[in-house]
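Quick check before the chapter quiz. The format below is the same one you will see on the exam, so make sure you can read both the input and the output lines.
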Amino acid sequence: MTSRQSRSVEDQFASQLLLLSIDVSIAVDERGIILAATNSISDLFGWSREDASGQNIRELISESSLEQFDHYVVESLGTASGTARNMMARRKDGSCFATELTLKPVDDPADQIQFIGVFRDCSEQRKSQNKLDEYVERLKQSRREMKRKDFQLKSAMSIVDRANQAKSEFLANMSHEIRTPMTAILGYSDLLKAHSNGQEQQELIEIIQNNGAHLLQVINDILDLSKIEMGDFAIRKVHCSPLRVLREVIDEYQPQASQKGLSLQTRYQKSIPESIQTDPARLKQVLANLISNAIKFTNTGHIELDVRMSAQSPLDRILQFSVSDTGIGIPAEKLKTIFEPFTQADSSTSRNYGGTGLGLTLSRKLVQILGGNLTVQSTLDRGSVFTVTLHLEPDEDQLLSHGLGFQFETADSNRKDITSPEMDQRSCGNAEKILLVDDTPEIRRLFTYLLNKMGLNVKTASNGKEAVDQIRTAVAQNAAFDLILMDMQMPVMSGYEAVRLLREQEIPVPVIAITAHALVADREKCLAAGCTDYLSKPVKFDVLYEMVQRYLPARAMLQLNHN
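Here is the expected output.
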């Protein structure tokens, strides 16, 4: 191909590129006059090629971008390669749009061409960018909103925490204010009953005791539910005998059943584990509530407590307690709500039978915390069956050896086959010295009487400061106390402060905390202060005896006088 032919091809190629180009290309002289333009100038700017020729390039630039354009022209003169700039262009009709302009100076101007300019439409790109910018801005706004809501949530949680703390403190103080007088009421009624010979007096005292015990149970239910709702409820899982728990409940409620002419019976399989890991106090609380309700709502017939084992798999074995009665039953429409707080079977139930409607709610929550479930089946006027199911740990495989097959037993409160060992009928010795610390005179008098009944030598103090002074004096005289019973809520100096002082001075005498608080991890709080163990008011004589016997030196033991 000759050079002439090559030039012809190049000219034809260049001509076709100018016709097909989407971008707008123009040739501009040194004055800025458009000498030539591609056909695309008509589509983008609304100018025909002929009309555009002779116009100044500034006619294609938006007024808002003219100053930027002038600076760009000056910059372009000093560089051999064109650098693109984003600015606003103007159509023939005056409308504007975003463009990318590239100006490149011609090294060897021919036909008066000083610049080659290329306009590229950026409208869609700008729209996309604007959408992206809007999206980013919305994200920023969303993030700011999330931060604002997070701050509000944290503020609300702080308010809730303070409210829960206030509620906790209120309930703890309420517990203390109620349990302390209840300790005196129940304790002194026990003493009156032991020394009263008249039948009428015995009956009046039993009325006081029964109503006091009922009031205490209501208080306990409210406090337990409050602890569960606030997430401040702890259980203590230990190895225990399920049949021993069963027997303790039966022995406790047998007199009530007999008084109503009801037969209280138990049935259990020989495959019942000898030991399971659970909280025996809470399991007993649940079973006691179910049996108590069964007695309350049954007028004739019997109540059965059935204990069974079942296995869904080798690693998932279930221990099941079922309490069935022949009582008034529950209407079908009420079964779905029977476990809700303050719910009774019908509006007349509370009037006829009493109760707050908290017992079943608390029982189900306790069973769930123990890792099981509480369900009910009932037929109106025929009776109810409440069933507790507990999932056992895989290693709980020790079975009872006594009994053959499935056996039936009639409960007898005098039986001792599966009850706890009988109390060791020995006192803790009259050589033992105990310091009793409590700010309530009636409580000091009651506990002094009970401790004297055990043959113990009792000294008293009314607050923590008096107690610390007496203990220091006794240690200095080489006559230290063997045991201290310390109320924790006292004026002048609390039991917590007193115990901490004793431990700081390395006085090792055992300290048993006696407190009416029963809400905010009281046992752990007492132990953290340095107490050896913990008792919650009201304290029964047998519980006090067992605790004192546990920590006193085993010497000078005398026969305990229960009379």
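If your answer matched, good. The chain has 15 helices and 18 strands.
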